[in-house]
C-alpha cells in the first residue's frame, strides 16, 4: 500500500456481482481472478498516474453492492471526486441499479464526476445476443445526467486503462479539455472495437 497522500478519491458503486471488484483489481494490480468473495462494506486500494509531468495518487473504494449496505456506501462516496458506477451489460436490471446510484451520488455529492462503466464486455464480443444493455440507450442516459460511458472487460483488460486515465485526466486537467479529447478520439462500436463516449 502506498504511503503518500491520496490526491483524489474515487468510489466504485453498482449492483452486487456486476464486476466492481474485478474492475478494481484490474485497475490497481492488472490482474483478473474468477474467485472473488462478496465485498462486505468496502475495500480500499490506491494507484498513481503521471499526467503532464504531475503524479496523481488515486484512492479507490470498492463498495459492497448488496442493498443492505446502501447506507454504508454513502460514507465512502462522501467527498469523492469521481464515481465509477458499474453495470453488467449482460444484465438489464444492473443498469437500472446504476441509475439509482447516479441519482444518489448527484443528490449528495454534486461535484462528483460520474463515469458509467459497462462491465463484462468480453461476454458479448463473440456472442452479441448476450447483451441486455444497449450502448446507445445508456449513452443517451449519460448525456442527460452529464456522465461519461465506458464499456470494459476486466478479464481481457479492454478499455480499463482508458477509463482510469480519463478519470485522472478529468481531475487533473479539467472536464472541458478531457471531454474534447474524448470526442475527437471516440471509436465506433460498429467497428467491433471498444467505445468510449463523453457527453
What is the CATH topology? Rossmann fold
Across the major sheet, the strand order is: 2-3-1-4-5-6-7
Give the % helix: 25-40%
CATH architecture: 3-Layer(aba) Sandwich
Measure the end-to-end span: 34 Å
**Uncertain ranges:** 183-199
Number of E-type strands: 7
Domains, number: 1
Q: If you average the pLDDT, what whole number results?
A: 83
Q: In DSSP terms, counting alpha (H) and pi (I) runs of 4 or more, how many helices?
A: 7
Structural class estimated from helices and strands:
alpha/beta
CATH class equals Alpha Beta
Give the name of the CATH superfamily.
Answer: P-loop containing nucleotide triphosphate hydrolases
Protein name: Ras-related protein Rab-24
Family: Belongs to the small GTPase superfamily. Rab family.
InterPro entries: P-loop_NTPase, Small_GTP-bd, Small_GTPase
GO molecular function: GTP binding; GTPase activity
Describe this protein's structure:
The chain is an alpha/beta fold and 199 residues long. It has one domain (8-198): Rossmann fold. The chain has helices at residues 20-29, 70-77, 92-108, 122-125, 135-145, 160-173, 175-185, and strands spanning 8-14, 42-51, 54-63, 82-88, 113-119, 148-151, 196-198. It is globular, with a radius of gyration of 15 Å. Mean pLDDT is 83; it is low at 183-199. It holds the Pfam family Ras. Keywords: Nucleotide-binding. It comes from Cherax quadricarinatus. This is Ras-related protein Rab-24.
Amino acid at each position: 500500500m502506498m504511503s503518500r497522500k491520496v490526491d483524489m478519491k474515487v468510489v466504485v458503486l453498482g449492483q452486487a456481482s456486476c464486476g466492481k471488484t474485478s474492475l478494481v483489481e484490474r485497475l490497481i494490480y492488472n490482474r483478473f481472478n474468477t474467485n472473488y468473495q462478496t465485498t462486505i462494506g468496502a475495500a480500499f486500494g490506491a494507484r498513481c498516474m503521471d499526467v503532464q509531468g504531475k503524479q496523481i495518487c488515486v484512492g479507490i473504494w470498492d463498495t459492497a453492492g448488496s442493498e443492505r449496505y446502501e447506507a454504508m456506501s454513502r460514507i465512502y462516496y462522501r467527498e469523492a471526486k469521481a464515481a465509477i458506477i458499474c453495470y453488467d451489460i449482460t444484465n438489464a436490471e444492473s443498469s437500472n441499479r446504476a441509475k439509482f446510484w447516479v441519482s444518489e451520488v448527484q443528490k449528495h455529492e454534486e461535484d462528483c464526476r460520474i463515469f458509467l462503466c459497462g462491465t463484462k464486455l468480453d461476454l458479448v464480443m463473440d456472442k452479441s445476443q448476450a447483451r441486455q444493455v444497449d450502448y446507445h440507450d445508456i449513452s443517451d442516459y449519460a448525456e442527460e445526467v452529464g456522465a461519461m460511458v465506458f464499456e470494459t472487460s476486466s478479464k481481457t483488460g479492454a478499455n480499463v486503462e482508458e477509463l482510469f486515465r480519463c478519470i485522472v485526466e478529468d481531475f487533473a486537467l479539467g472536464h472541458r479539455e478531457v471531454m474534447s479529447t474524448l470526442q475527437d478520439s471516440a471509436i465506433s462500436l460498429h467497428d467491433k472495437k471498444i467505445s468510449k463516449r463523453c457527453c
